[in-house]
Amino acid sequence: MTAIGMARITFRFNGRLDELDDVRRGELVNRSVSADLRVTTTVEAIIRRVRKEGDGALLDLAERLDAVKLDRLEVPSLAVNSAPDKIPRGLLDAMRRSARNIERVHAAFAPRATRVESEDGVVVLRRPDPLDTIGVYAPGGSAAYASSVLMAAVPARVAGVREVVLCSPPSASGLPSIEVLAAAAIAGVDRVFAIGGAGAIAAMAIGTESVPRVDKIVGPGNAFVAEAKIQLAREVAIDCPAGPSELLVIVDASADPDVIAREVLAQAEHDSRAIVVVLAVGETVASSIENAIAAQVNGRQRREIVEEALASRGGVLVVQDTAEALKASNAFAPEHLLLATGDADELVSRISGAGTVFVGEPSSVAFGDYMTGANHVLPTGGMARAYSGLSTLDFIRWTTIQRISRDAASRLAGDTATLAEAEGLPSHAAAARFWASP
What we know:
By secondary structure, this protein is of the alpha/beta class. Helix content is 43%, strand content 17%. It is built from 17 helices and 14 strands. Strands 1-11-10-9-12-13 form a six-stranded parallel β-sheet, with helices on both faces. It has a five-stranded parallel β-sheet with strand order 6-5-4-7-8, sandwiched between helices. α7 links the parallel β5 and β6 (191-194). α2 crosses α3 (55-65), α5 (89-109) crosses α7 and α16 packs antiparallel against α17. The longest helix is centred in the first third of the chain and has 21 residues, at 89-109. The model has no long low-confidence stretch (mean pLDDT 93).
């Protein structure tokens, strides 16, 4: 219950986890944006328009959806290169620090060529080759995510990508936010376009008169952006399905309710479609967290977004113990998982599905969003069961190289021919037997 005098907060999910009805339990596990028919059909229509009309569709969408009449889609290089000089020095220093940490971490993650000799004279090499052109999407709208530019473009540069293209929604000036432009300059982005939403994804996937077709599209976005990436995945490679932000918190009596409330509000302010769920060990812990959230929401600049997110997709649920919470978490497979429990270190080894895990109260999700060097472009919608967060691996393709000596070819010939004949491929068998010893 919310304490007297505090704001009343409504949660979509409340009560005991094991007493949730089938509808709400299903909503927790099935969070795919494709389940929303409105999102699906809207995105389909936008993709059709971009495919048919090219730049014309993008200019019209900017006027209709962003309320900006554009003369051109591409941002002049001068506007990008001069942007760092137009933001406060403290912000510039923070961006540069973030970029350094991202570069340091992702350089350590960079893949290396591997050589193996499967048997004498048979050498197989697997070599990582950078993609030629990648497209980065940085959200705008109610908040501009300059950090997403760094999170995508810096690892691409570390991987050796030749050209980095960025799309981000235009502000009233007709350009993406000055912060996004500054981040683009810091990260070494080659071309920037003032395009937002599903139209931007379609433009980079299909190519238009102005926007180049890219090899792969990366970066977070709202439900429409995530759906566009999914619909266009047959035409362009995409990263993990990164839709509206998600946070799952497992908390027990060892944690400070005010700390947990701050984490809840921080992630809920991303988007009215954000999903923030707390699994609290015991009713007392749950009640104290609800009260802390209610006390802190007053005066928040993005209060309406927070309250809508919590009412439509948020929750504080009671669990019996951390074992029950962990089982639920692995089924939920959240984008962000915060462990604020006395046994957090022990729980980490038992996590089988999460985009990224924050261990202990000081490990605020906000640090991961901006400064640790780990990537904040992460799988949502339960896809952390199979997908990983963005890294240098997303910007390379593997080339396999095979070298077989004459002696090895002679030794391989018989068994290769036997297998080929068993599969009804006599020409394969003949190609192998040519190398057999006389």
